[in-house]
Design goal:
The complex is a heterodimer of chains A (about 800) and B (about 450).
Chain A (H helix, E strand, L loop, with lengths): L2 E6 L2 E6 L4 H7 L23 E4 L6 E2 L10 E3 L3 H17 L14 H9 L16 E2 L4 E3 L9 H9 L5 E4 L6 E4 L20 H5 L5 E3 L12 E6 L8 E9 L2 E8 L13 H5 L14 E3 L5 E3 L2 H19 L4 E4 L6 H15 L4 E2 L6 H8 L14 H6 L2 E5 L3 H4 L1 H14 L2 E6 L11 E4 L5 H9 L3 H8 L3 E5 L5 H10 L4 E4 L6 H6 L17 H9 L12 H9 L5 E5 L3 H4 L11 E6 L11 E4 L8 E4 L4 E5 L4 E2 L5 H12 L3 H4 L28 H8 L11 H11 L8 H5 L4 E2 L36 H12 L10
Chain B lengths: L24 H6 L4 H21 L11 H6 L10 E6 L8 H8 L1 H15 L3 E6 L4 H16 L16 E6 L9 H8 L23 E5 H13 L1 H7 L7 E8 L5 E6 L4 H8 L9 E5 L8 E2 L9 H6 L8 E6 L4 H15 L5 H21 L2 H14 L6 H16 L1 H8 L24
Parallel strand pairs in B: 1-2, 1-4, 2-3, 5-9
Antiparallel strand pairs in B: 5-6, 7-8, 7-9
Helix pairs in contact in B: 2-5, 2-8, 2-9, 4-5, 5-8, 8-9, 12-13, 12-15, 13-14, 13-15, 14-15
Classes of the chains: A alpha/beta (about 800), B alpha/beta (about 450).
Amino acid sequence: MPDVNFIVDGKKLTAPAGTLLIDACKSAGIEIPAFCYYPGLSLQAACRMCVVRIEKAPKLGTACTTTVAEGMNVTTESPEIAQARKATLQLLLGNHPLDCPVCDAGGECELQDMTFKYGAADSFYAEPKNHREEQKWSPVVYFDRPRCILCYRCVRMCGEGMDIFALGVQNRGSSSIIAPNVAPSESPDHMAALDCEQCGMCIDACPVGALTSGTYRYKTRPWEMNHVATVCTHCGDGCKTTLGVRSVNEGSEIVRGDNRDKSGMNGDFLCNKGRYAFDFANNIERLSSPLVRQSDGKLKPVSWEEALTFAGKKLRELRDAKGANSIGVIGSNRTTNEESYLLQKFARTVIGTNNIDHHRTADFVTLATALQGTTTADGKPRFASQRCVEKSPAILLIGGDPTNEAPLTAWNIRTNVRLNKARLYVANHQDIKLKRQAKAFAPVAEFGYAAFIDSLASANDFSTAVKAEEKLVVVVGNELRGGELAKLIAALPHAKFALLADYANSRGASDMGVLPDVLPGYQSLKGSTLASEYGAAGQSQVADAPGLDLLGMFDAASAGHLSALYVVGSNPIKRFGIDASALKNTFVIVQDMFLTETAVLADVVFPAANLYEKAGSVTNSYGDLQLVAKAADKAGVRSDFELIVRLADKFGHDVKTLVPFGKGLRAAGMSGDMGQTRGAQSGEADRHSVWLTANNLEPKLSPFDPFAILDEIQRVVPGYDKLLRLQLLSGNDQHIAPAASGLVQIQTGRKDLVLPAADTLFTSGSLTRFSPMLQDVQRHQASEHTDHLASAD
Amino acid sequence: MPTLVSHPDEVKVVSRRFGMGATDIDKYIELDGYKAVQKAIENGPEWIVNEMKASGLRGRGGAGFPTGMKWSFVPKVSEKPKYVLVNGDESEPGTCKDHVLFLHDPHSVIEGTMIAGLAIGSKVGFIYLRGEYRYLLKIVEKAVADAYAKGYLGKNIFGKEGVDFDIITQTGAGAYEVGEESALMESLEGKRGVPRIKPPFPAVVGLYGGPTVINNAETIANAPHILLMGGEAYAKLGSERNGGTRLFGISGHVERPGVYELPMGYSMRDAIYKVAGGIKDGKKLKAVVPGGSSCPVLKADEIDVGLDFDQMAKAGTMLGSGGIVVLDESVSIVEFALRTIRFYQHESCGWCIPCREGTDWIKKTLTRFHAGGGNKKDIDNIQYLAENMMGRTFCPLGDAAAMPTLGFVKKFRSEFEEYLEGKRVEHPLIQITPIGEPALAGAH
């Protein structure tokens, strides 16, 4: 669109023709108030707050529906306009309960802000207000009807944004109310209810306190919280969630999650888990003291010193007595990149084994190998970012169900189709919800994805359309792995690819080399520079033979060949359905938040911090790297990073070779302190320290400083070398395309090593049962007897 | 069914077949029916639009937009189907003209719809009737069926190869708001009856996203007559820039209420005193609501004005939908104002804040005022509310509620003030429960 010139409040402005006046003004720093206008949703012109004076127009016009035109002369503030807005506010406040002192939205309310600005402080009405009872629509969504100003943001967010259409308007005129999709007559408790994805997007969109969160209602005031933007732990999409944190006796507690600041690549979006499922952190069953198994066979709380010394010494004894390859290490898909990197470095250089693996939820090894050295038609790497899904003109979704497993991916696909008319092609063995947005759908037999890939080679409507796409992004579910995945990648030689994985850092665990057959960045065990560097750092040369994979470790344990197993943030016993007796002769150390099925078998259990209680970085399924900020704090727990370092210390290892800290990297002769100079972890840094860190000017004085390891990751992991530290520290995401060196030699993997989490919108692996909210929502959804969601046709 | 009235001053064009059994298709044909549409097929779209433009016909729904011009706005080429939409959602209080039209001459609406279709290149027309007019639907549906049976509707109409036209009938669900053209389209599409954002205007993006001509039923029914008599001849019947004649529904305190067809520009005084026989029971005239309840009231001494769009606008009111409501001296303006706002409050669709909340607060305040709990500040408040609704709402319903309210309060302020002092005209049209002393004045 060509640019047009126009004048707003005497300022000469330029914007592309077709731009809405309200947006053009916003870009120029002129704010026009509005309740109903919401970027990306359909226009309403219902609140009449954005009225402006447009020269030559007979009456005030709405800036939200007017597009800029050449020569247009607009006034956005004048006594006439202020009066119009004031009158509108007076009308709203006439029926508003004015319960701001107790309202959740108090301090964050657009109606308050507008009233403050336009001063609608006088009332003309003697009649009682229209009062209506508040309603609980679900465990997480409450509706306070009297506060509703009927801006229809929630209705549109639910319908247009989420493609659910669970909210609508009932009645007419001043009796109009927002109503959910389950009528009282259809609900088991005879109360109106919501049968939906329980994403809570309606709450974020609400400009006032009409829609409130079931987990946050009446808990605190916004100004009593610190707001920390960090990355959600639950799925692999990498949404930012802004956590509201409040001080409590045991540290600081998360009381709210939202994304009202639209801080991350998820923009407006946040799903049920990202918004509410932080409550596992406050679960009463949370471990807060190290446990060591006593001679009576029972786990008993002991001091940190005792537990660490016992674990470190025992591990050393077993390594020295039974050999490094009798020890296995299992990492996590929820720990930070720094922790994952550190853990594999611990396995390879402290213990001296390649027996390291994690619960893989997608086949990133094949992805990295198959894409290595290839480019798109315009010479770009073929790793797709989450941003590609948001913007690419064409998307092919093979397998998977992003609506349930990767909700942001689903949101981005829907939004891209809705706003940019992107073409979506879906191949799936189920009628997934995203089929509604699809331009073409290819039904696939269950377990028939290999046949589908073959069909891409033949000339049919679907494959012809897909192959004609010049800028195609292919999003692949976990149905495809190994050879089939490689074949697919070869069949679409110019497309970009991404794999759907589960949990916050599955991709990171892979990229960081928490794998038995490759080093960080998918580098070869044999002959790579990193291998020799590790050799120098460790007790001996890193073995160039691959170690045991996760299932191999349990097989070895059953056969009596595994002397020790170190499990960090993982529950393989439950996830892989492993018989508990497999570990009866193995010394087991577990770091976790809860006594999981795996932790109960351990000899030593360390209470670990979760992703919301530490700093570092994570990489989402697409390879978008983001910073994780420490939001909450729990007395008695330690980050996995700190625990690995302390265990290495008690193991008798020179910690400085594990974490480069002190003035100058690995400065010989410097006595590194154990964190006294800097504090135990890097939390929210102030601007000055951000700048120092970004420019690598600040010496890492603590062995617990994840940035010391981030420095090393940047130095040694291909792909991660390109990241810009200042971008990262500013909270921006950066896309990582692992540039494997070509030396990769991959062990023929067991297919069952990739085990999809099969999470739904309301489950998150082992965390599910520790989140009361998820439990409540599951019960609620089960009780709404019929499917009220709009049918797919 | 209302009885037909007539008066020698009438000029019968659109009402010429009333009372002649023209609901029967053969009778309609005998009375020159379906001639105009055949003439239209022969002469083509350009000729039709030119005749319509020459006729000076302006929209009879109330806004008075020139019909020929409206038809010419529809793009000639369109990817989406084009539609003709007949607005038979006659809901403005005091208006009852389309009702008699459907009752006595449904084929003229059908024929007019076909002509509009030929003019814009549409093959489908919809006749949308007010929900409360469901009993008229039988008449219209029979007429449509008869037209199909004769081969006047459907494929190759009148035996002309490639000339197709279909008509679909639909009724509303009882909402004044869907009389607004874009809300009507929403309703017809099966959605909530709330108006659409304009632009785009219906001529470009209308029903189901296709270019649409939407006209009032009376406007459409005029088209066959115009084509038969010629646009210029029709124009001459009326006043300057206001071509032709119009159906006026005169109601209230007159001797002979009813629907009369008078030339545009006809004197309002004569319409009341001559045509409708003057004020009932020899009482004195107090006020006239000239064009449906949304038009600002005229006082007894303001009725020397010609009944056309321009003269009425000059007089500070509107010709509106042609529903003239005559009020005699027995009427309490306070009560009448309440009755009026009660209608608009009830009918406000609730889409935008000023209309939804404004009509509600005016109604609440007036209800209390009427019940005896008012004070002087209420009069100012009512005026303030109406002034702040005016021109600020999404669609004209807000204006329709604000305009008469402002008229009553401004022109009859003394009556409001006297009402507070107990001087009330007792005329209990409305049963209202007194609400007693106002609770917590200024509660917020």
